[in-house]
Amino acid sequence: MSNKFDFVSATDKPALLAFSSPEWLDAAKAALTELGYKVHTAATHSDFLIRFSQVRYQVVILEELFAANNIGENLTLQALQGMPMSQRRNATVILFGESFQTFTPMQAFQQSVHAVINSSELFLLKQLIEKAVADNNIFLHSYQEAQVRAHAAAEKGD
């Protein structure tokens, strides 16, 4: 791996970034740090997949052209799109780039991510991350509540 791996404690809020643009990477890192996340960065597609498989990230922000010339060559995005939901359920996945209109649900759905953000809105990144995470938490609330009840019932032997 290109970066030294940071260990994540039970109280940390881990986030993973995959950017080719240093300016965008710095802005995303600053926004997540300000929001209290422990930020890891991936330098390559394989670095991303190794990190993603080892840590239960709460937020993942991926540049549409991460280590690619066009979105179709983004192997990291392709890998995320092909993962079963059980592997990526805990992460709010945000796709960042120039070809999206911020928070367009159909574009997010087409890319199998929770939210898309246009790079022209970089100055609002902190607020947009907060909104994407909150929206995802609201969406998953009923599922998570049912999961807790099922786990409690299983422990009781019901």
List keywords for this structure.
single chain; 158 residues; alpha/beta; Rossmann fold; five-stranded parallel sheet; 46% helix
Task: Please provide a written account of the structure.
It is built from six helices and five strands. By secondary structure, the protein is an alpha/beta fold. The protein has one domain (about 15-155): Rossmann fold (3-Layer(aba) Sandwich), CATH 3.40.50.2300. A five-stranded parallel beta sheet has the order 2-1-3-4-5, sandwiched between helices. α5 links the parallel β4 (about 90-95) and β5 (about 115-120). The protein is globular and about 55 Å long. The chain starts with 13 loop residues before the first strand and ends with a helix.
Q: What's the short version?
A:
By secondary structure, the chain is of the alpha/beta class. The chain contains 6 helices and 5 strands; from the N terminus they run βαβαβααβαβα. The chain has helices at residues 22-34, 45-54, 75-82, 85-88, 105-110, 125-156; strands spanning 14-18, 38-41, 59-63, 92-97, 115-118.
